[in-house]
Amino acid sequence: MEDLILFLGRFHVVALHLPISILALLAGLEIYFSFSPRERPSVLGSIWFLGLLAAVITSGLGYLLSLSGGYNEDAVNLHLIWGVATTFIALIGWVAFSLIARRGKAWSLVIGGVQLATLSVAGHLGGNLTHGPEFLFEYAPNSVRGLAGFDAKQAPRAPVSDLADADIFVDVIHPLLELRCVTCHNPSKTKGGLLLDTYDNILLGGDSGLAIVARDLSASELSVRINLDPAHDDYMPSGGKTPFTPAQAQVIDWWILSGAPPSGSLAALNIEPDTLALIADAIDIQVTVSNLNELGLPFLPKLPLAVIMELENLGFDATPISEKTAYLDIDFYRLGEDSISEEHVTALLRARDHIAQLNLGNSGLQDHHLSVIAQLPNLLKLDISKNPISNEGIRHLRALDQLEILNLHATQITDEVLPLLDKLPNLERAFVWSTAVNLDATIDRPYLQIESGFTTPIPQDEKPTPAPQPER
Amino acid sequence: MNHPEPLCTGFEDTAGLSRRAFLNKLGLGMGGLALADLVNPLSALDPSALLSSTHIAPKAKRIIFLYQSGGPSQMDLFDHKPRLNAEHGQELPDSVRQGQRLTGMSTNQSSLPLAGSPFTFDHYGESRATLSSALPYTAQVADDICFVKSMYTEAINHGPGVTMMQTGSQIPGRPSFGSWMSYGLGSMNDNLPSYVVLKTTGGGGQPLTSRYWDAGFLPGKHNGVQFRADKDAVLYLNNPQGVSRRSRHAAIEHLQQLHEKQLAETSDPALENHIAQYEMAFRMQASVPEVTDLSDESQSTLDLYGKNATKPGTFAANCLLARRLAEKGVRFIQVFEQGWDAHSNLPENIRKQTEKTDQPSAALIKDLKMRGMLDDTLVVWGGEFGRTNYCQGKMTADNFGRDHHPRCFTMWMAGGGVRPGYSHGITDDYCYNIVQDGVHVHDLHATLQHLLGINHERLTFKYQGRHFRLTDVHGHIVKPILA
Q1: Do the Cβ atoms of A454 and B35 come within 8 Å?
Q2: Residue A314: closest CA among chain B residues belongs to which residue?
């Protein structure tokens, strides 16, 4: 029975063109003849009957369609009222012009005018139901949009070219839902009582439960349904619409598992490379994953090979931290102890922005060299241990506001450097073992790493407890 | 001081096998190319397959593998099983053994009586790690350690077992782990090999032959180089009597010229490799005595490693040497301790072995930590398999032995991106089978490579018509143990 209702109901959208065209033509003619000196042809009265018939049938079909649900109830009711009003005016027209055969120009003007108005309103409301209220004026010039009561159109968000800049919801999840879900789950066509058009609405869920439950795939109806067998009744998108690709479904699942954050740039979320590749696949953007770095530093193009060569020839081991980043890890093992020179240090400036990790331990580095090192803005990790570095040298380092790890072990620093280190905003760990830095200084300075030896001598178990005797 | 001339002929790493040499070749030969435009010119063009950079950002830059040869007893050191004490002397239930094979040594025993551990267990550190009373020093660094209690292997005897752990195959001939890392990551220090092997001397135990650190089908320069506890740390390195360093230099120089002539006519990788080895050997004449000389170590550091720290060839001295090699940029340092193969006299064996290894192992962690090196140095501790829960041979009131047991054993790791203060995997109450989160040797290899920044499926070498890798066709990264 339900199927039959739906089957007939859907003919509403076909049938409706008949009353609209008949009644619009009639109303137009009535208005025309109310002003024209020419005589109104009497056949119009019979045509009103045709218009009424079409309006009644269409209204009936429309009611059947409304029973299937899935539309915004208020919008449907409003459309229904205006549809009935249109039919009612058609009835008045038929009665007035055909049954009691009125000929007055006033009759024509009033009934024609009212019919035209109700018809327009009802038709427009119906159009909004199927196409959404934005449909008609979506591409209108902003001046026209303003007249129609719409906001001026926003410039579209620039497509993402670098995943690192992408926002997890705005650029990844939302476009996926737009693509496959929102045509049916929007404010005017809320299938299953579910809205997937905005983050807040997604959280509200629908008739079958919550669309997403952070970190719980099996409770998240959205995840469950897009991962069902496509033949399953509950599979989404339903009705043979284009489904998500496997990568897209995986990205949605990953988002839910990550707590379904409403925003946040991918670079800041510290996402694994595999997942990033998946996302790039899912939203089909032609980025090389090498655009991404795992270090939380801004994207940098690769350093010219000539510069790397120059550093290597000087004795540095200059290696990209991974194949996905242009940032470098530089070591100085090759040349041996105490062999660093002015030339070496200044050469580092050739790769100024690219050096994220620098190990110059036991290289003979001196205080004045650190004024050069301090010009490396993206340095995250610096090892200058086992060098004749004093407090003077450390003063230069205050510019290193990205620095996270600083190895000062076996240098000539004293407690005086601690206020300097306190000011490094991102410092996570500083190694000061085997320096004059006082052990007490570790209090309130969790970044300071000082290990003690095996302080308490522990007696070896000379006589371990003998194993219990066999019971049998 | 400027970049010194190469000690030999300036003909270094001729095979293009070092990144630097390769870069130079590329720069000279292809200078006209818009190099900066190439996304990754090194990996695209480098014929040596040496990785121009790691696949992912590495957590560890080097590994110190404290190999405990013979198979330490997991239930006497790490994996506390009170049930074995409760059922001490009772027969191993068939429901637990499930017909699994035994070694030839205990398969004919008429009875397989369970043997409880004679050692007491307690919880240590903030992580409340469970450790036996035989490991008082390890207990003090427990919060830095990640214990994997669910290791397993298929090998049931030492040869295949060590070969499996070292090369990813029970059958000899594959390259060792250290060789793969040398091949993939290259050397950070031209003056030292990238894979160094240290062995405890005079300990007896199962033989450790050089095939365990062999490069297999990889170029020979990736062989592990054994440093001996002797005045000649590396054999045949020193000049023959009556030959001065200068004349040695001249001889190698002439030899190189001949080699170059030969190379100009036929490109022979083996010859290129040979040249590199001559070069390395010559440079090591200076670098090896320097790195093995402990005289610049402070007393407090020596104390840390214990009374044997200055006794060459002991596990303690080798741990200290391992740290020194790590400081010099050696990629893979493997310290072998023999003597864990306690088929009989297990309580005494454990006491003897832990006395040798407990403090130095823990000291290495502390020492690296002090120097800020534990962040990027991965310390691995363990052997080829575990030991049985039942007694092999005669069981007396305070003595028994344990046979080989591959179905579960414990290894630990510290530093270099592993999760500190964590224990992974669960074995059953009898310490016989794994109940949860088993970690195969292949999985360990995959995970260790991951920590070094290597995708274990992508570091391969084509040999006999197919691409080989350390994990062959296996291996899953054990994510829970990553920090």
Answers
A1: no
A2: B3
Answer yes or no: do A458 and B189 touch at CB < 8 A.
no
Q: A with B: how many residue pairs have Cβ under 8 Å apart? A: 179
CATH code for the domain in which residue B67 is found: 3.40.720
From chain B, the residues in CB contact with A471 under 8 A are: 88-90
Is residue B141 in a domain? yes
Q: Is B209 on the interface with A (CB under 8 A)?
A: no
What's the gap between Cα B415 and its chain centre? 15
Instruction: Please state whether A105 falls in left (phi above 0), alpha (psi between -120 and 50) or beta.
Output: alpha
Task: Report the alpha-carbon angle A128-A133-A139, nearest 5.
Answer: 120
**Does the distance separating the beta carbons of A434 and B370 come in below 8 Å?**
yes
Q: How far apart are CA B416 and CA B425, in angstroms?
A: 20
- Expressed as residue numbers, the domain containing B456 is 62-234+296-481
ipTM score over 0.90, yes or no? no
Pairing of strands B145-152, B195-199: unpaired
Helix, strand, or coil (residue A150): coil
Compute the radius of gyration of chain A from its Cα atoms. 38
In A153-192, the residues whose Cβ lies within 8 Å of chain B are none
Note if the pTM is more than 0.80: no
Q: How many domains are there within chain B?
A: 1
Q: Where are the beta strands (DSSP E) in B246-397?
A: 332-337, 377-382, 386-396
Query: Do the domain assignments include residue B26?
Result: no
In a 10 Å sphere around its CB, with 0-12 CB exposed, 13-18 middle and 19+ buried, how is residue A188 labelled?
A: middle
Residue B414 in any domain: the answer is: yes
Q: In this complex, do B351 and A362 lie within 8 Å of one another by their Cβ atoms?
A: no
Measured CA to CA, the distance from residue B320 to residue B301 in angstroms comes to: 9
Distance, in Å, from the CA atom of B406 to the CA atom of B154, rounded to the nearest integer, reads 6
Q: Give the span between the Cα atoms of A43 and A27, in whole angstroms.
A: 14
Distance from C-alpha of B401 to C-alpha of B96, rounded to nearest angstrom:
20
B-proximal residues of A, 265-324, CB under 8 Å = 273, 288, 290, 294-295, 302, 304-306, 308-309, 312-315, 317, 319-324
> Quick one: which of A135, A132, A137 has its CA closest to A152?
A137
* Residues of chain B contacting residue A320, judged by C-beta atoms under 8 Å apart: 52-53
Can you tell me which residue has the tokens 């035989």? B134
Q: Is B105 left (phi over 0), alpha (psi -120 to 50) or beta?
A: alpha
Instruction: Give, for all 472 residues of chain A, the pLDDT tens digit.
Output: 778 888 888 899 899 999 999 999 999 998 998 888 888 888 888 899 999 999 999 999 999 888 877 777 888 889 999 999 999 999 998 888 888 877 788 888 899 999 999 999 999 888 888 777 777 777 888 888 887 777 776 666 766 666 766 788 888 898 888 888 888 888 877 888 898 988 988 988 888 888 999 888 989 999 999 988 888 888 898 877 888 888 889 889 989 988 888 888 776 676 776 777 778 778 776 544 444 456 777 777 778 888 888 898 888 888 888 877 889 999 988 777 778 999 999 999 999 999 999 999 999 999 999 999 999 999 999 999 999 999 999 999 999 999 999 999 999 999 899 989 999 999 999 998 888 888 777 777 888 877 766 755 445 444 444 444 444 4
Please name which of A56, A253, A79 lies closest in space to residue A172, comparing C-alpha atoms: A253
Nearest CA in chain B to A315: B3
In a domain, B363, yes or no: yes
Whole-number Å distance between alpha carbons of A405 and A381: 5
A104-109 contacts, C-beta under 8 A, 24 or more apart: A105/A33, A105/A34, A105/A35, A106/A34, A108/A30, A108/A31, A108/A33, A108/A34, A108/A40, A109/A30, A109/A31, A109/A34, A109/A35
Nearest Cα residue to B115 out of B78, B149, B70, B81: B81
Interface of B with A in 444-473 (CB under 8 A): 453
